[in-house]
Hints:
The chain is built from 8 helices and no strands.
Amino acid sequence: MDFMRLLQSLEELLYELVSWLVFYPVTLWRTLRRPQQMMRYADVELGDTQEERYKDTLSPPLFLLLTLLFAHGLELALIAHRDDAMLPEMLRNDTNLLIFRAFLFSIFPLLMAVRLLGRTGAALDRETLKPPFYSQCYVAAPFAFGLSAGMNLARTGHQEMVAVGTAISLLSLLWYIIVEVRWFEHDLHVGRLAAVWLVLRTVAEATVLLLAATIIVAQALGVHG
């Protein structure tokens, strides 16, 4: 009986993993093509039962995590000799590094969600924070990939790649800001200038927190292990 349950669990796991080959590009295409619609979709799906949620896409946090995994794979392909000596010993493991990067980039959707709740006057708790956070994970994923890919291209050291990488990073940031401005305009019913200010302020705060978290972790773990 235990052996049959193990086989069933492996069968479900295999199907889930293989299905990502279909639903990841579907989720990515929909997010790039209609980001606002995908953010609304994330909210609506949370109202369904656990079994019915995100049946035709990936869940937002999983989408963000897989996107960072692909960005990490691109880094390994582009950077032949990564200088791991600059990392704490714990983060020299690819799995730990990926988890840490997922935590860092999750700061952006987290602060955006907190900002929305703060402006609407809604209570801040686990239940109220989850819908806007899930919505934000969808659009944070392409931004994270573009920023990571651009920075890794710039790190190759080739002059042409530095220019291309910088352009990709800036375009990813611009896309993210535009999407967020529209989101704040719609959800908070504020003007364009007010939305721009809220977005730029939140992006700046998230960047500061990201850098601070990186420094704190590096100091806590020890740069040289």
